[in-house]
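REQUEST ID: PR-0412
SUBMITTED BY: lab tech R.K.
PRIORITY: routine
TASK: structure prediction, single protein chain
INPUT:
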Amino acid sequence: MIAKPRGARANRLLAQLPDEAFERLQAHFEPHAFALGDIVYEAGQLVDYLYFPTTAIISLLHTMRDGDTVEMAVVGYEGAAGVASFMGGKSMPYRLIVQGGGESFRIRNGPVKSEFERGGAFHHGLLRYTQALIIQIAQTAVCNRHHTLEQQLCRWLLLTDDRTPGAKQITMTHEMIAQMLGVRRAGVTAAAKHLSDLKLISYTRGHIMFIDRAGIEKRVCECYQIVKLEYARLLG
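STATUS: complete
OUTPUT:
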């Protein structure tokens, strides 16, 4: 189900812009709706838009030669997807896939680069966001190497819930979560069942309901708080 649309200021990066900068960009906004599973960019594809989600959630997914996948980071209303559009790289090394259907606003590279090169709030906001994104990618790598599957699942659930304010559930199958975490589906099923047995979540036909978020926060590894605190420090 696609979340209800909201205005561009619902995106945190755009909300923090002064009116003058926002108005310059607003002339180039294109509303764009995503459905669950949509491909935003394939790995290596030229990036021609920068996307600012308002209710959509986008995953940066790395695919190995054997077809195995793992999520490197997740982008929601706090950030932007397609940072190559202003960093000069022209393409992304990861596939960008929609993890949660919803709304976004997109801007073509030209206006993005023009406003970025002016300096000021847009420039500094995107640089701070990119630093936060790098921290999330690095911490994900640490988490995947050192923490249990249940801890990884808790981290994934909390990061996703943070990016769906007001939502009562997450729509995602065990198979899709396994692809995000880069693990076997059976492992995700066992970890989710344990959380369900502890009455922290409930799971029915691809819908995950939070029963006790505080309880999940007690079981998650330190990676979640590191990422959350760095995003708060860098983005406000």
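NOTES: The first helix runs from residue 12 to 15.
REVIEWED BY: pending
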